[in-house]
Amino acid sequence: MDQNTREIKTHCSYMDHGGCGLIVTVRDGSIVKVKxxxxxxxxxxxxxxxxxxxxxxLDHPQRLxxxxxxxxxxxxxxxxxxxWDQALEEISTRLDEIRQRDGARSxxxxxxxxxxxxxxxxxxxxxxxxxxxxxxxxxVCHAPREITGVxxxxxxxxxDFKHPSELVVLWASAVTNTNEEGGICSQLLKQVGxxxxxxxxxxYRSSLADKAELWLPLRPGxxxxxxxxxxxxxxxxxxxxxxxxxxxxxxxxxxxxxxADYPPERVAAITWLEPEQIRRAARLYASAxxxxxxxxxxxxxxxxxxxxxxxxxxxxxxxxxxxxxxxNICPLEPKIAxxxxxxxxxxxxxxxxxxLSAAHGVIPRFMTIPPAFLRRAILEGEPYPVKGFFSMDTxxxxxxxxxxxxxxxxxxxxxxxCAELFMTPSAALADVxxxxxxxxxxxxxxxxxxxxxxxxxxxxxVEPPEECRAPMQIxxxxxxxxxxxxxxxxxxxxxxxxxxxxxGVSWEEFVERGHLQGxxxxxxxxxxxxxxxxxKVELLLSTADKFGLPPLPAWTGFPEETGEEFPLVLTGRKNxxxxxxxxxWVEELRKQNPEPITELNPADAxxxxxxxxxxxxxxxxxxxxxxxxxxxxxVRQGVVYAEHGWWFPEETxxxxxGGWERANFNLLTSAAKLGKEFGTPNxxxxxxxxxxxx
Length: 694
Description:
- By secondary structure, the protein is of the alpha/beta class.
- It is built from 24 helices and 27 strands.
- The strands form seven sheets. The chain has a seven-stranded mixed beta sheet with strand order 5-4-17-16-15-6-7, covered by helices on one side. The protein has a six-stranded mixed beta barrel with strand order 22-26-23-25-24-27. Strands 11-10-9-13 form a four-stranded parallel beta sheet.
- The chain is globular and about 70 Å long.
């Protein structure tokens, strides 16, 4: 290796939740190779196609490289280049004008899925500005599992792939396609190779389902019913962990009475399964010691998200698999900064009462705003008007339910600014767009605040373009103008040091180590009980009346039933080479997924006169889109998978919004009916029809 070439260890990020250790080869300031780090703490050498292609974002000719200000109509694609000082001054002035006139709560801040410290930088920015409104996608990702876990057992039950399990249940979790929150598939595959059994619960027969002891192709959206059916069998056949249930659960008798209404025969009709499949699944899970349940975020894509998550936590408790090695654990964090002080929660002490969600009665401890509530505030002034919005790393027009409603809301804002890597359809509707640096171009900390008991070092490997700034630096620059220099450092690296300060580990030492992990302790409940009002796992919620919550998990029916006009069940599908709507413009990834695909079973296709490769129109009550048909026997009959997040960056010269209406899955979804606990819209289990496109 010559003197101008060096290898740098870092962690993948922004291509997914991240976590794969990488070895990046840099020559003369440019990346020439990326490979998985064999010593990577989570991945042991594995890296997905997105990680391998991640450097291709950096030198893309259409990447945003300068601050821009809109000069034409919103969405017209007419911009002028301005300086950073001009851009920051305009954003801070316009947002402050709204604050002075209508109050800080009339400005909202937004972001996509948590990717790094920028998530908490945005929360801090909102808090220091004085706004209680941080809008995120957590209503359909992570929060229903996390917050439901906190209310039921006092913590978020994290799947433990680090220690051996007798059985792993993949419940709506396609870990070989999407590595959820640090659950890298290489850890699971290693276990399977060493004899760990698999149960897969998913209407799609994946390659892991081929290896499984049992595959349950349930109807999309019926997760809560299946959980109750399994609970019925476990209790009826006395398969539960009697000692754990007696000593550490609250409300067993009430749950048993509730589950009695869900015998396998009734549940089979709801889930499209056979009664014996449900019995076998319950017996397999309850008898395995330990058993880990990896629950993916598709269970959070319907109005029934709370009941589904409640049912699964109850299953973990009944089987004695909570906080045990190889089960679903309660990780302890390393000595790092607490979230409250880091985001300056003290500056908005009445946040719970002031945030938009308060008027909608969401579950306590859910502190981000569901997008549906933001749009009501913008368009209807309910419960109060929102006039300004600043977002980072998110493309609402493509990823929020009901895209036309989102477009109306963004167009109705008095002022909208964002920071982005590329001119997305949402950014095209903004007043000011800031050019962000990409991961691999700035220092960052991964998995802070996610509740997995570790953080990862993400040192930069190359420098960003001259005018592209790290997302955390953008937060600092705006924070100093909007909230004062005493609340924000001049250099974002001070924000990294704040996280590490309690550990006594410097940034340089952290980079050398690669990660920090909290102490490994299991069965902590034996000494301290569970962090709930009763000190036990609350199968029956003791706070149900106080917070207006259902006390027991239940099946409340599908949000919409299929019928003659819409006989099939639609659900979304993420492609393993895409991250929602991101990176459709990276050529290496686009070649692997060149156009939007709708998958359906050959038997359904034959009945509809659809052949492989046909352009098909997928329609729901909400709208219709066109995608390319793929016939796949792995999709169960009656189910349709349409790809999520599609737009066409190559068309932005002619259409600044990149053909956002043609194949966008969220033209098929609605935000009219929401789950009360999290404001979750119905983004799966949607009645649909499929026909050849004209």
